[in-house]
Write the structure tokens for this entry.
Amino acid sequence: MSHARIVQVERDILGENDRLAADNRAFLASQRILALNLVSGPGSGKTTLLVRTIDDLKDRFPIAVIEGDQQTAFDAERIRAAGVPSVQINTGKGCHLDAHMVGHAMERLRPQPQSLLFIENVGNLVCPAAFDLGEAGKVVMLSVTEGEDKPLKYPDMFHASTLMLLTKIDLLPHVPFDVDRCLEYARRVNPGITMLQVSALSGEGLPAWYDWIEQNRLNAGAATAAVSAAQGS
Amino acid sequence: MSHARIVQVERDILGENDRLAADNRAFLASQRILALNLVSGPGSGKTTLLVRTIDDLKDRFPIAVIEGDQQTAFDAERIRAAGVPSVQINTGKGCHLDAHMVGHAMERLRPQPQSLLFIENVGNLVCPAAFDLGEAGKVVMLSVTEGEDKPLKYPDMFHASTLMLLTKIDLLPHVPFDVDRCLEYARRVNPGITMLQVSALSGEGLPAWYDWIEQNRLNAGAATAAVSAAQGS
């Protein structure tokens, strides 16, 4: 098969995805829902951080979660045990969520207006970078056990992300990890990226993460209000 | 684009890959080279374990390494600093090595007869599972910081692997990780899988890993010798 044909097929797939992502984004904007696409390699602590975040924020505003994994419904069960609605998507052989899957999951999940929607992607620092789900932004998580070189080795994901959460910082005393160098590497591929350091175990750094969410919820509402006003005028 | 067309394209790509993998395998067998395809998520400690392994084994037999990453030549430089030849493959947007890339890398690397060839794949627990590179076996690494549920969440990779190396076991006192449950999960998707526990930092468990390599080097030589004798008769 020719290389040109493979490239064309990739373009077709991404074009179709982008159309469906635009539909998702329009729905989310109409409901003033802030959707965050959580991306990372396997085992960076996405679900543990999510459960803690839900515990701490669920009394402030409604939260819902779409969980992506190749197999198992473990994560959706953990999220439901934390007290918020969750839908699991199993991708089977697939290596990432796409906008089509997320659109259908939202139909089942029915997130409330002005809620916070977390989309936990398949643990994979490569493929999910290329797929817009209609989210407000990608939040890339990197645990301090993974090494500070990862932003340079997987630049697409760090380039595509708005926020970088450095996770498991309670383990910093036990691993070789240079936080300043990691931030420098991340800014080399994405000068505008914000980095926050958190530990779901100790709670260190979580207030700044929650402030970031609150600020973006306000922005989502304001941006939508501005769009609505412009459309209505 | 139709789903059927996507599936057909996937089959074409995998079919082409399998033909090239068979070429690689024939070359490796003719030279009695044991090739191991090292797969894992990002940051599981593949390169650190490799450097330690090279240090400990390079006086026993020749070793060469093919390094895969989306970007950077960091890992190939680390390997060369350890004193053995290495070729870096940068996959760019790509999420895995394929047999075509590995074939060309072997032409540049020219691994010696009866040597050990490590192929360090892109850090990704999903996509590399589907691509045969012509290796003798896949060795999947999982660090104890990633959680014991990973074999069930990423079953294709654990199903495709011959050996599972549980890495960073020096961190077991600092993280919640159930070794027995992890092994049970791995055997649920691959009853024949072998698990070894190692720490590149403390050296714990490395002798068993080296014994496993030695045994497979002997097997590779014996299998090839048997094939040669049969063809020559």
In short: Chain B has eight helices and seven strands.
